[in-house]
Design a protein that fits this description.
Blueprint lengths: L2 H5 L4 H10 L9 E2 L5 E2 L8 E2 L1 H14 L6 H4 L5 H9 L10 E4 L2 H17 L9 E5 L4 H14 L4 E5 L5 H4 L4 E7 L11 H10 L3 E5 L18 E4 L13 E4 L2 H4 L38 H14 L4 H22 L6 E2 L11 E5 L3 H10 L2 E2 L1 E3 L3 E5 L7 H16 L14
Parallel strand pairs: 2-13, 5-6, 5-7, 7-8, 8-9
Antiparallel strand pairs: 1-3, 4-10, 9-10, 11-12, 12-15, 14-15
Length: about 425
């Protein structure tokens, strides 16, 4: 726990002093952040790197506008998914040549699930395993993709949903082909022990797929050391790649030779411009690619990744824990008496970089906060999510956010009849 929180000196001036001493404070200048806005939703959409605007103009005006199709070679467009993957790799404990930035998280999950199931079906010892284990509280699209894939394969696969992490040891047995988990739960911020859970799956002969949507760029991840088999994740949250930015897929070197995926598009072909009528997968990580890449979006991802070269995941994690410790402490001290329930774990090893808080009128309270310039988001049931991105979130932002929340709660400045909008 951060020294400031231990001392319980809950003063705005103390938060300002922490910001002055913060080694990550200069990185805030790398982002465009609107005035009079406290942005605590980087766990849903990261802020825009200032460099992204100039990069977008360069791609559109010069690389597309002037160099036209020559930019596939001249500007390196063709190699961009793998080159970005190599830049992302150190943030998640991957090696060069193991990640491509491409497609969406859902599509990449479909690819790795299909590849992992085929690997199991091709081995005599695991060929008859038909169970996929995941959490009922997993991000819904992950469950949907598994449901859709297994129904399409029509081999009798079934999902086994657990209601709590403690149920995983009993759920992962000799019938399990695959375990699919999100490292940090999107709703609660609970962080799984990747190493222990991967070992648990392997002990039963199962493969394990990790979704790093709320981990990459937020917490230290070491995919190799922690025994993961496959991983996917997005770049538009803590990696600040832009709205709908391409996601990523990780296939470790040890699995690449046997990995096959059903979306066998020409970008995954060994000789794409030979225009052969039969598919032959390329060697290495590029076999996870499918079709022509969205170059403008990919180019902006690089702007977000470049900021991470100026710090370390250990420094980011230390500040993340300090920010979330402070937020929790201020909620408990300044908003006592209100029906707030902090659902995010207090233990550091079980907490991501968000704090989720339940309130009977959570949606209405969050809308009131947003109207006052404190932007978080809401997830059913009753949960207000506050994401802390250490690259640009300040300690004084934490103080001011809780101060505004206190005023809203104390004076009931929220409308319980507020109608839900499409995205929160």
């Amino acid at each position: 726990m951060h020294e400031y929180v231990n001392k319980r000196e809950y003063k705005r001036e103390s938060c300002q002093a922490l910001d002055l001493a913060d080694e990550l404070a200069p990185l805030r200048d790398a982002f465009h952040l609107p005035e009079k806005v406290i942005y605590l939703d980087g766990n849903s959409l990261g802020a825009r790197p200032k460099a992204a605007l100039a990069r977008a103009q360069e791609v559109v005006a010069q690389e597309w506008g002037q160099d036209l199709i020559r930019s596939w070679n001249k500007a390196g467009w063709f190699d961009l998914p793998a080159r970005l993957g190599d830049k992302l790799a150190p943030l998640v404990g991957a090696k060069a040549g193991e990640i491509v930035v491409t497609d969406s998280t859902s599509i990449n999950l479909f690819k790795v699930l299909a590849g992992a199931l085929q690997m199991q079906a091709n081995q005599a010892a695991t060929a008859n395993r038909l169970v996929i284990v995941t959490e009922r509280s997993n991000f819904p699209t992950d469950i949907y993709m598994a449901e859709g894939l297994t129904a399409w394969l029509d081999r009798g696969y079934r999902l086994r949903l657990v209601d709590a992490p403690e149920e995983l040891p009993a759920a992962i047995d000799k019938d399990v082909a695959l375990v699919m988990l999100t490292h940090i739960n999107y709703r609660t911020g609970y962080q799984h022990d990747m190493r222990a859970t991967s070992a648990l799956a392997h002990a039963q002969g199962a493969l394990i797929v990790w979704d790093l949507a709320h981990s990459a760029g937020a917490v230290p991840v070491d995919l190799h050391a922690d025994g993961a088999d496959f991983a996917v994740g997005c770049t538009y949250k803590y990696l600040n790649g832009g709205p709908g930015a391409p996601a990523f897929a990780w296939i470790p070197g040890r699995h690449q030779e046997t990995f096959r995926q059903p979306l066998s598009g020409w970008w995954g072909h060994a000789t794409p411009f030979a225009m052969a009528p039969q598919f032959a997968p390329t060697a290495g990580i590029r076999r996870a690619l499918c079709g022509t890449q969205p170059i403008a979006s990919l180019a902006l991802v690089e702007c977000g990744l470049e900021v991470f070269a100026r710090t370390s995941m250990q420094a980011i994690r230390a500040k993340s824990l300090a920010l979330t410790d402070l937020f929790i402490a201020l909620l408990e001290s300044r908003c006592a008496g209100h029906p707030l329930n902090i659902v995010t774990p207090r233990e550091h090893e079980r907490r991501g970089s968000q704090v989720s808080v339940a309130h009977p009128h959570g949606y209405a309270v969050m809308q009131a906060l947003i109207a006052r310039g404190v932007i978080g988001d809401y997830r059913e049931p009753e949960i207000m999510r506050f994401g802390f991105t250490p690259l640009y979130t300040r300690f004084v932002d934490v103080w001011d956010a809780v101060d505004i929340l206190k005023d809203i709660l104390d004076n009931k400045k929220y409308d319980v009849t507020e109608q839900r909008v499409a995205v929160t």
